[in-house]
Structure formats: structure tokens, C-alpha cells
Design a protein that fits this description.
Length: 480
């Protein structure tokens, strides 16, 4: 990293003005290369906005204000014949398929998270996703893209957001795996921004080593800015892509290409084609998922922790939860929407504060400390905060067994084990609908482990009974 005395002086002046000069406490002990890297890091930080952030999120601990007049958001029910809100699913499918045949759909995966709960040393996308094959989470999405490209005859470009902390490892992983059979030119990597982690007591920047400021990726909500800044959105547009299918990296069951959802988003009368979402009915009031609501005529997601308990527990006339539309972080996003948001420059979604444990260097001793309890405020933007910025936004109900099997933790809830169970439940359902006998235990759960690759079947009707076994042996692990 090139280093000059002037650039160090300039960094010092900016740090001093922001009350953060301690960042240079160890600068004399660093090599020139390390100094250059630190100066470059300082140059990349928006130090001028920092005092305001510290005041808002560390001193005042600004918290969320519930909007007035909150009501449950309407949604397209999973069963299009439902009397609650009948709709034409075949029409939506046709519209979605037409867009796919035109090459107007891309996939966009956010994979810049730190995966701290999983505790996996590497990009989360390299972690095991497939219940039987053990294929990686990246490969799970790649297979959907391959399936769609085969079926619709057009490339489906894939934008992958990394963070500066895992960018190189992610690109290397794709190279090692020959891009999972995809065309390398159709995979666009770009990195999201970072924000400094702040000392919870003082609002000071923390050092992760003597020559580096502790930062964290700026949240999946950073993606809408990074898509623009990186040039990825312009590149998608150049390729004729008009809509992006947004997926998180940690849900191996996500239907990365869903013609019905694509069509509904792009052509439903009440959709602006800017940002749409999928939901699953909540299992119980305490389930920790955000809930789709409306306020002031706009759809928005209220985080689990922000929804007052009395609202969360309200029942409708049929006994169901009134606020039951749980967000599963699956969206469609219009390319023009991303352009519109960024048009004025300086776009950013609101920040949310979280108190976390962030290892830091003790300024008195220079030693690294692993704090036993949260010591830092991390700031992150959430992608769903863009929903109310859309002119109008629709929600489509899905079934969690069909597409929600997240892997967040190494064990317990939302782990590889629970994900494999849900993947098996879905595969069993699909196979049984095609006449295959699936062994079940006394509780009715499949007594086997199953996985269906989207290249084999994007829907149950793609499974050819002539090529399926009549029965799955008990205890068997089978991938189709
Ligand atoms: P999570 O909120 O589950 O965070 O991310 P995480 O970083 O993966 O895991 P923990 O909380 O540290 O354990 C949901 C999705 O958003 C992406 C993640 O990669 C994942 O696909 N994400 C999250 C980003 O791309 N950038 C971020 O800054 C945060």
C-alpha cells in the first residue's frame, strides 16, 4: 500500500476534527505498508458524518418509532382460488415466463454478512446447503439459475454482493468450483460498504488490530446503494435485465427463479414493479420474523422486536393472527427502482443499531481483547426498509415447507439439521404427489433424507414418474 507523510497528516487532521485521533495511537509501530493501509481505510470512512451518528445511535440510543395507524398488509393468498382474494396465477406465470424468455430477469444474492452465529470460517455461501449432496449454499442457487437458463433459453445473470471482509474468498471459491457450471461472464461480484463499529460507552472507533479500524458490513440494506455504486445495476440494465430476484445466501430452499412471483411483481395491477415480497403465515405470535404491515398507505416490514405485544397477539374473526404475514427475505426488485433511489446521489436506507461483541485493541497496552459481553454498537441498514419507498408494493403468500429452510446457526433452530428436515419434507411432498411411496415415522415425518435439485424439477409436475423409484427405502438418503 503506497504511503506518504502528507496522506497521514491529512488523515490525522480529519480524525482529530471527528474526535477520533486515537486511531493513530500505534502508527509509529506499523510498517509503511500497514500505515498505507490504515490511511487508506481512514480515507474511505465518512468521518464527517461520524459525530452525528455517534450522537444519534450511541449517546441518544435512538430507537424505532412505530408508525401511526398500523394495519396488517394485504397479500395474494397462496391458493389463487381463495375467496379471500381470488387472482389469476396462470396469468402471472405466463407474464413471468415471458420475462424469463426475454432475458429480462437476473438473480441478486446478498452474501456479505459475517455469519457470526454460524461460526463458519469462510464465506457463508461456501457452507453446506444440500441435505443429501452437501453441496454449498452458493451451488443451491447456481442450480436454480442453470435450471432456468435451460428451460427459458436465456442467460440469467447473477449479481452477488460480498463485503470487503469476504470478497476475495468468495471469488476464489467460485473459481475453485468452476463457477458451478455457470458462465463466468454471467456472475457479477461486487462488494458492499462498511461502517465502523463504535465503542458502546464512548462512541469511539475501535481498532481491530494496531493498524486497522474495526468495521462491519453495512447490512443487506447496503445492497441498494452498492448495486449502483459498483456499476452492477448499470451492467444488468445493459444486458436487458429489468427485474432482480433477491435472495439471501442462507436459505437453500429459496426458489431463486419463481415465474409466478416474477409475473405478479411485474404485472399485477396493484404492483409498481418496484419491490415485491414473499411472506409465510407466522407460526405463533412469538416467532421472530418481521411482519408486513401498512401505514399511511405504504407497505412496510415491522421487526419482530418493534411490534407491540398486544398487536402481535391480536386475532382476526377466524381466530388466525391478525398480523400474520411473516417476512422471509425474498423479494423482487425492479432495476429502475434501484436507479430511481440512487438518482439524487447520497442514497442510503435508515440505520439500525445493535449491541454486539467486537474484539478490539486496548489503547493502553496494545493487546487485543475479546470482550465477554457486548461492547460495541454496530450499525446496519435493512433491505426491507426500501419497501415503503416503492410507489406500491405487493406481497405473495408462500408455504414455508416450499421455500424457507434457513441456516443461521450451527445447531438448534435454523441449523443445517432443521434445514435438511424441511428440504426432506418438501421433497417427500413432491415425490408423493407423483406416486412415490415415502416411508414415514409414527409422527408422520419422512423416515429418510431427500433432496431435489431444481435442474431435475423446478415444480412437482417436472418429476417424471417413469424415472422415479416406486418407493424410498426407510432410512435412505436420496438426491434427485
Ligand atoms: P443475517 O442477518 O442472517 O446476518 O443475514 P449474517 O451476517 O449472515 O449472520 P450473523 O447475524 O452474523 O450470524 C441475512 C442475509 O443478509 C446478508 C447475509 O449474507 C445473508 O445472506 N448480509 C447481511 C449481507 O449481505 N450484508 C450484511 O451486511 C449483512
Amino acid at each position: 500500500m503506497p504511503f506518504s507523510r502528507e496522506s497521514l497528516d491529512q488523515a490525522r487532521r480529519r480524525l482529530r476534527a471527528a474526535g477520533q485521533e486515537h486511531v493513530l495511537s500505534f502508527v509509529d509501530r506499523l510498517t509503511d505498508a500497514q500505515r498505507g493501509a490504515l490511511v487508506q481505510q481512514v480515507e474511505g470512512l465518512d468521518l464527517e458524518s461520524l459525530p452525528a451518528l455517534v450522537d444519534r445511535y450511541v449517546r441518544r440510543k435512538e430507537s424505532y418509532h412505530l408508525p401511526e395507524g398500523l394495519a396488517p398488509a394485504p397479500y395474494y393468498p397462496r391458493d389463487p382460488r381463495s375467496t379471500q382474494r381470488p387472482w389469476d396465477a396462470s396469468r402471472s406465470r405466463r407474464a413471468g415466463e415471458a420475462l424469463l424468455r426475454e432475458g429480462a430477469v437476473g438473480v441478486f444474492t446478498v452474501a456479505g454478512g459475517q455469519g457470526t452465529r454460524l461460526g463458519y470460517d469462510g464465506p457463508k455461501g461456501a457452507f453446506i446447503g444440500g441435505a443429501v449432496t452437501g453441496k454449498s449454499l452458493f451451488a443451491c442457487i447456481a442450480d436454480w439459475i442453470i435450471a432456468a437458463e435451460k428451460r427459458y433459453g436465456r442467460p440469467v445473470p447473477w449479481a452477488i454482493m460480498t463485503s470487503p471482509l469476504n470478497h476475495h474468498a468468495t471469488v476464489a471459491y467460485f473459481n475453485e468450483h468452476a463457477f458451478f457450471g455457470l458462465e463466468e461472464r454471467d456472475v457479477l461480484f461486487f462488494s458492499q460498504g462498511v461502517l465502523p463499529s463504535l465503542d458502546m460507552e464512548t462512541g469511539r472507533l475501535l481498532l481491530s488490530s494496531q493498524g486497522e479500524i474495526a468495521t462491519n458490513p453495512d447490512g443487506h440494506g447496503g445492497s441498494l446503494r452498492a448495486l449502483h455504486h459498483s456499476g452492477a445495476i448499470a451492467e444488468m440494465k445493459r444486458r436487458g435485465v429489468r427485474h432482480l430476484s433477491y435472495t439471501q445466501i442462507d436459505n437453500p430452499l429459496c426458489r431463486a427463479i419463481d415465474p409466478v412471483f416474477i409475473g405478479l411483481h411485474a404485472s399485477a395491477e396493484d404492483s409498481s414493479g418496484e419491490m415485491s415480497s414473499k411472506m409465510v403465515p407466522k407460526t405463533d405470535p412469538g416467532e421472530k420474523v418481521g411482519v408486513f404491515c401498512t401505514a399511511g398507505g405504504k407497505v412496510q416490514v415491522i421487526e419482530y422486536s418493534d411490534l407491540p405485544r398486544d398487536l402481535g397477539e391480536q386475532r382476526d374473526e377466524r381466530g388466525g393472527l391478525r398480523f400474520n404475514a411473516g417476512s422471509i427475505a425474498i423479494h423482487m426488485i425492479g432495476v429502475e427502482f434501484v436507479e430511481r433511489l440512487n438518482a439524487g446521489g447520497g442514497f442510503g436506507l435508515p440505520l439500525h443499531r445493535a449491541e454486539k461483541k467486537v474484539p478490539f485493541v486496548d489503547l493502553a497496552t496494545g493487546a487485543r481483547v475479546d470482550p465477554p459481553k457486548p461492547n460495541a454498537v454496530k450499525l446496519e441498514a435493512f433491505v426491507f426498509d426500501a419497501i415503503p419507498m416503492a410507489r406500491s408494493s405487493i406481497i405473495y403468500e408462500t408455504d414455508r415447507v416450499e421455500e424457507f429452510a434457513p441456516i443461521k446457526n450451527a445447531d438448534g433452530a435454523d441449523s443445517p439439521a432443521t434445514s435438511a428436515r424441511i428440504q426432506t419434507l418438501r421433497a417427500a411432498r413432491w415425490l408423493e404427489s407423483r406416486g412415490v411411496v415415502v416411508p414415514r415415522n409414527p409422527y408422520g415425518e419422512p423416515d429418510c433424507t431427500l433432496e431435489i435439485n431444481p435442474i431435475t424439477a423446478m415444480d412437482p409436475s417436472d418429476l417424471d414418474p417413469a424415472r422415479l423409484p416406486p418407493e424410498i427405502p426407510r432410512g435412505e438418503r436420496m438426491a434427485f
